[in-house]
Design brief:
The chain is 43% helix and 16% strand. The protein is of the alpha/beta class. It folds into two domains: 5-159 and 347-364, 3-Layer(aba) Sandwich (Rossmann fold), CATH 3.40.50.2000; 163-341, Glycogen Phosphorylase B (Rossmann fold, 3-Layer(aba) Sandwich).
């Protein structure tokens, strides 16, 4: 029996949205796909741009401490569960696939009420609250990293877009990517990105080191984040090097192809994607929260595929001290890239899609 419809839920940041889109890509042609997100999240623009149907519910913000916001939680959760239930009643999915974030919890609860099986995917080494709360009620719990503390978890890797999995960065591909980004074809390139929301520490260090990087012949692609992009940002050219500021990059595969080294936060999507394409990284884990970014990046740092820098240590001088020697050592960069690729196996999107469809078939009693 063919599974006719699947719901994918996730949103907030690119870390949740990117694996959702990758899994939808692996499901295309096998079933109808409906995505569920919130109006305020990144998914509101990115998912429709990927050609996917998006239905919206109100976000449920889960307070991490005892505040007055806790008083609003029961009403907010009830409202969002009611909205998610309407979508499930309309779509009648064979399975719900959740990727965490504020949108997933009400969809999980609504799915349970309608006896729709849940498959959840956790991107980070330490799981988020929605996935922790519902893991024991899921038919399958899938993770990016081994050892993620969720009951019954199976490590499948991180779903990434097919274009990234199949990307082979030849000199021709790199030159083409640089040309489209307005970079010189020759010379080292540093890519800087703090994720979809940007990162002040990374932005400040890059801005402070910019003139010295350019003077050393290093071009910089500086992705500020949409909310942090300065009004006076401008392309700067110094000799053969160029500084290119961007608010956001829709096609990170192109940015990865253009770069020799990346300065980045250590969100699961960034860690998995850069490892898969073999891009050496300087990871600066987010210093707040539950420390999942440090755990995400630890296997690559331990394997010599990346360098970890504390957020409090990242100054313009520190960036120059670490980045310039690496950018001047092509053999070390190559070794780091090969080590990174050995740690992240491709094919996770297809694995997640296959598991979800098998769960749906098992629910109907058809193992075909």
């Amino acid at each position: 029996m063919k599974v006719t419809s699947v719901i994918l839920a996730g949103g907030g940041t690119a870390g949740h949205v990117s694996p959702l889109i990758a899994t939808a890509e692996a499901l295309r042609g096998r079933c109808d796909i409906t995505c569920v997100g919130t109006p305020a999240g990144l998914e509101a623009t990115i998912i429709p741009a990927a050609g996917l149907e998006l239905r919206l519910i109100d976000a449920v913000w889960l307070p991490r401490s005892l505040t007055l916001d806790l008083l609003k939680l029961p009403w907010q959760l009830h409202r969002s569960i009611r909205e998610a239930t309407r979508i499930i009643d309309d779509v009648k999915p064979g399975v719900v696939i959740g990727f965490g974030g504020y949108v997933s919890l009400p969809v999980y609860v609504a799915a349970r009420r309608r006896r729709v099986p849940i498959v959840m995917h956790e991107q980070n080494a330490l799981p988020g609250l929605a996935n922790r709360l519902m893991a024991r009620r899921a038919a399958a719990v899938l993770t990016t990293f081994p050892g993620t503390p969720l009951p019954g978890a199976e490590c499948v890797g991180l779903p990434v877009r097919r274009a990234l999995e199949t990307q082979a960065v030849s000199a021709t591909v790199a030159a083409s990517a640089r040309e489209r980004l307005g970079l010189p074809v020759d010379g080292p390139v540093l890519l800087v990105s703090g994720g979809s929301l940007g990162a002040k520490t990374l932005n400040d260090a890059t801005l402070g080191a910019r003139d010295d990087l350019l003077a050393a012949g290093v071009s910089v692609v500086h992705v500020w984040g949409r909310q942090k992009y300065p009004a006076d940002a401008a392309v700067i050219e110094r000799g053969a090097a160029r500084y290119v500021p961007l608010s956001y990059v829709d096609d990170m595969a192109e940015a990865y192809a253009a770069a020799d080294l990346m300065l980045a936060r250590a969100g699961a999507a960034t860690v998995a994607e850069t490892a898969m394409v073999g891009l050496p990284c300087l990871y600066v884990p987010f210093p707040h929260g539950n420390g999942e970014q440090r755990l995400n990046a630890a296997p690559l740092a331990e394997a010599g595929a990346a360098v970890m820098i504390e957020d409090s240590d990242l100054t313009p001088a520190k960036l120059l001290d670490v980045a310039l020697p690496l950018l001047g050592d092509a053999s070390r960069l190559s070794a780091m890239g090969e080590a990174a690729k050995s740690l992240m196996r491709p094919g996770a999107a297809v694995r997640v899609a296959d598991i979800a469809l098998n769960v749906a078939r098992a629910k109907t009693g058809d193992g075909a």
